[in-house]
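Human:
Focus on the backbone:
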Amino acid sequence: MKAICVSLLVLMSSLAPAQDTPVTQAEADVAIRKVYGHLRQVLNLPQAKFTPSQSKTPITRDQLVSRLSALHEYISERIQLKVRPTNADLKGLAPGLSEQRRRDIKTLVMLGLVSPEGLLVKSPQNQYTPRELGTILGVFLTRAMDITHELDPKFSPELMPN
């Protein structure tokens, strides 16, 4: 839990200088590289094969979904909980995503790694401010920690012996 709080603080502080301008691909990749580093440390994973972009163009929804999907693949071997898929209504899925990214976003929503009512799913916007990117990555990290750690029966009422 402490690692999640520290990760979110680092992400928000690394993206803090320009709050209203869209995040570039290079800026987003700095934050995503930090996410990989924290996931690697907390989950004891091998080094990720992630090549950050140097592009100064704003990151698009398609590109962000692609990066989140790659993060999901990175942690997939450590998922311990039998995740019950959500039956979120994705009829309002915002336009502009490629067919592959539509499948990716549905998978991410089903696992809870992306909010079904969040910017990536419902909003037609295609660029994100640092605060919005921090929120998207924060939701991902929070849920990733939830599904990759085994619950302790001592502290989980539903797992306690009768």
About this structure: The chain is about 50% helix and 0% strand. The chain has one domain: 2-84+126-157. Residues 37 and 47 are 8 Å apart (CA to CA).
